Structure prediction request, 387 residues.
Amino acid sequence: MTPLQVKTNIVYKHLVNSEKKIVVEQGGTRSGKTYNIILWIIFEYCAKNHNKVVTVCRKSFPSLRATVLRDFMTILESHNLYSEKFHNKSNSEYYLFGNLVEFISLDQPQKIRGRKRDLLFINEGNELFFEDWQQLVFRTQERIILDFNPSDEYHWIYDKVITREDCDFFKTTYLDNPFVGDSIKREIELLKDTDEQYWQIYGLGERAASRSTVFRYSEVSNIPEDSELIAYGMDFGYTNDPSTLVSVYVKDRNLYIKEHLYRTAMTTTDIHKFLLDEDLDSKPIYADSAEPRLIEELRRMGHNIFPSLKGRDSVNAGIDLLKRYKINILSTSSNAIMEFRNYKWKEDKSGALLNIPVDTFNHIIDPCRYATYSILSKPRFGKYTIH
Prediction:
């Protein structure tokens, strides 16, 4: 079977023609990006090389098995290339034309940080953290391919990958895939009138905020001098979760957020010293009320720290309060930006959004809630009070 006998679309041609180390394929639904990348791996890369290691990766193995691994096996079988003797099912590996093709996920850290590879394909790269990308890239010698749906308009892929000089970036939609039937096209185009965000992301393949993203925000270079400090917010962590500190300012209907601390393995003494060193010992700080011992220890050390105001459903109440303002984050507050970018609502099995935030990416967001909810929800903050 030669490449000329394989039915492909424009994604395949992108890979054939690109001379860059990294190729990023951003696409809407049914653009054929994943399927054509697999075709290229089989009929261009593996068919023309020998003794290479190809790694195909996705965040979770069930998702990997149900999508890209299934496509790979389907293509091999449909072109009479599959042989059970070359398939190591227990390790999810296949030996193709003398090359090793392995399928791994991020829940297999020993493989991610294991042997080197020649070619890396990251499927649905928007599911990964930047640190995952780095670990994979450090061990890739020749070429990297990444595909994704643009469901997060602030994703690190835009800032840290497609801006590289050694990267080619392409966008495709269902209209670039000649094998999509008319009935599927009509279903996709119904999104124009039923769900504008879904149409933007999955129809047009364009950047847009995910429906599940809790907050919209802007990055700013400074906090206006005439803004008013609401308070500082603090969250406590230790081994895996960081201790964090933010300050929140208000001007008109704008909140301004500055990150001061984001660090693990801090004792009470470490926090005390940090606050002294940063001249924050007298600043009003609202901290997680679930940690009364730590708050009391810091108060006895002379700090102006209080338990945050909490009430019935205070998490959602705090989120609702934050969303009444335009959120602005200092561009130097990298962890705050990362968390606001990734903080999302839970979804049920059908994909419907639940009014419950996912309990992650909240080490900065929680202290923002503590500071704002503890002050703005009280009838003593002038024109900014929420009644």
